[in-house]
Amino acid sequence: MTSTMTGSTDFPDLQALAFEVAEAGIGVLRINRPERMNAQTVRMFTEYGLAAGALRDSRLRALILTGAGERAFCAGFDLDELDVITRMGVREFLEFQETATGGIQAIRHLPFPVIAAVHGAAIGGGLALALAADIRLVSPTAKFSAAFLRVGLSMGELGTSYNLSRLIGPGRAAEIGFSGRIVDAAEAVAIGLANRVVPADRLYDEAVALARLIAANSPGGVRMSKRAIQRNQEITSYAAALELENRGQALLTCTMDMPEALAAFKEKRPPRFTGK
Fold first, then answer.
1. Fewer CB in 10 Å around end: N or C, the chain?
2. pTM of whole model > 0.85?
């Protein structure tokens, strides 16, 4: 990435993410773990914030957010790192949650539009990441799920309860969140979770074309429009919503149901929840 695009030569060295310039004013941030279906790691949440910090004052007019490879946008948290989380105490886990939510929030609050180009799975934290974008274009293979309850947590995670309910309404958000079911591309468009479905081989090109349309408008007008849309959604405080989510998740790590859910997942059996 050049200094003319970022205004700085100190763009961070990213391991789990990759940045490139598609054309003048249009950047592409890829989740770059295709061998793991772009699953999230503890480090990746820090990198969201690092990348957003480097891009915030750039000359970009729009950013495309997508996943590397053919299989997934982002399949949620990497199961190989779950043991790292389960060893955390409540205070340490809350600090991790604040880092994770801070990374997602930094992408959401980029001053220019963010377009998520979603193919394959956008599950759990992948859904939260897609929700941080302003616009979602999806291929026919796209599938969304707020799968947090399946591992003994709540949908109060990474801004999901806030963003999803405002995007599709509290009733639909509750049904999708409480069940953890899959929402396919067609349903996602029908309920307003996605903007439109485009052919898989055209997804990237369509995202660039849309970014080009946005970039053709007044930079100040686009940025102020984004700010107005976001602020006008915030009838209550977004920061307060994140605080509530973070504390709820930290408390849930102390229950018996979370380790039971993780054990059941590894043993490929139904979990036996007790509510304790």
1. C
2. yes
Q: In what order do the strands lie in the sheet with 143-145?
A: 72-74, 121-123, 143-145, 183-184
- For the chain, domain boundaries: 3-201+218-267
Residue 40 one-letter amino acid: Q
Contacts of 267 (CB under 8 A, 6+ apart): none
Helix axes 42-56, 90-108, angle to 10 degrees: 40
| CA nearest neighbour of 20 among 70, 55, 69, 71 | 55
Does domain 3-201+218-267 match CATH 3.90.226.10? yes
Helix or strand (DSSP H, E) at 240: helix 238-252
The CA dihedral of 148, 153, 155, 159, to the nearest 10 degrees, is -100
What pLDDT score was predicted for residue 121?
A: 97
Instruction: Tell me the two tokens of residue 32.
Output: 């770059």
Distance between terminal CA atoms of the chain? 50
Residue environment code for 51-75, b if the CB has 16+ CB neighbours within 10 A, otherwise e: bbebbeebebbbbbbbbbbebbbbb
What was the pLDDT predicted at 142? 98
Nearest to 97 by CA among 242, 272, 231, 203: 242
Q: How distant, in Å, are the alpha carbons of 131, 201, 206 from that of 209?
A: 21, 14, 5
Give CA 145 to chain center in angstroms. Answer: 12
